[in-house]
Amino acid sequence: MEESYDVIVLGTGLTECIISGLLSVEGKKVLHLDNNEFYGGECASLNLAQLYEKFGKTDAPSESFGRPRDYNIDLVPKFSMSAGDFVQILVYTDVTKYLKFKQIEGSFVYQDGKIVKVPATEKEALTTSIFSLSEKNNLRKLFEFIQKYNIDDPSTTDGLDWEKVPMKDIYKKFNLENSTCDLCGHALALYNDDTYLDKPFKETFQKIVLYMNSVTRYGKSPFIYPLYGLGELSQGFARLSAIYGGTYMLNANVEEVVYENGVASGVKIDGKVTKASTVIGDPSYFKNKVQKKGQAIRAIYLLNHPLADTNNADSAQIIIPQKQLNRQHDIYVTCVSNAHKVAAPEHYIAMVSTIIETDNPEEEIAEAVKLLGDYEGKFIEISDLYEPLADGTTDHVFISKSYDATSHFETVSDDVKNLYNRITGKTLSLEGKLRKDILEEDEE
């Protein structure tokens, strides 16, 4: 008799592992497969030898890098907002018991050729060196307005409908200069282009409040990051699934999805069909069911020094808003180090990422690379970005989106919630568990 499952999941990317864990907890019989020999898929973390092999480098890593096994280098750079939905998913599922986190020390923005700390409070708005005194006051007033705004209290709205009034009108109301608008939309709300300006200001306010709340949660910056790299996240959800009966198989030879009357009925592995009524996976397993939505460049650099103008931070994010370099999309610079157990002592891993706009992607990030200073190693990857053509409710094949060029997990959380709704017909509720101080064991 053929073995059968409720769900087969293809690929061990983080999105797939989260969905696998959630469905296993709900009592689904889950088989999770990956053609790779390691967890994480697109967002795996590799040691230095694995990184050299992936990028086809035939020479061995220099001894100056230290031990290759001391490295856990992310292929996709992402930080977690400490007050965001992604951390709540970790708390809700208790995956935090498998992980340890450390704060990212600094969040910076590139403004007029300089790297400056992102102001996220009324006090910081008044003390930042970015703006004139009058502009500081305008920004402070906007922050105060955002903090007091309550949709249930008309007296706080100044007569503005947050479901209708576009964000660009809010900027005009507070007489903000273009550079200040860039900071709010890109360094605080973390949009990677300017399409938000014509949309109702509700979402932008919510994103800025999330940033502010994430900063006040631990101080320094809004971001946290798991020790030993992002690959730990996928493995944490794999453990969760296994505890509830999920079965994992790496190095699987997935040949094709099998259909009956146009509906998924299983997966062929090494010539044998394993039955399942639902198939979930990343775009690499469904080339005929996804559409290309662009490309991202992700460039990894190995450094022996911290990023300049970040107060020697052991970790940091720098956002370069699109208009600073006459672009249509932001450029993100991230940096982590031995403090996060991802590099040898005195070494740092920096990554530059953005959406590709021309035929010369490396030239597009050249100004960002200058911010890194000297580097010892460089690894460039161009990734196609895919989205599913259909929602999966007809053929029972549910496909995730490719990981975008943003440097935070909120877009991944959105995709997880969307997938969960399409698969189960239910809204993913993250209520019922209080947020834990998941850094308390790691901070001195």
Description:
The protein has 444 residues and is an alpha/beta fold. Among the domains are: 4-54 and 84-100 and 226-291 and 388-424, FAD/NAD(P)-binding domain, CATH 3.50.50; 119-219, Guanine Nucleotide Dissociation Inhibitor, domain 1 (Orthogonal Bundle), CATH 1.10.405. The protein is built from 12 helices and 19 strands. Strands 1, 2, 10, 11, 12, 13 and 19 form a 7-stranded mixed sheet that branches. A hairpin with a 2-residue loop joins strand 7 and strand 8 (114-117). Helix 1 (14-25) runs parallel beside helix 9 (231-243) and helix 1 crosses helix 12. The chain is globular and about 70 Å long. Mean pLDDT is 90; it is low at 440-444.
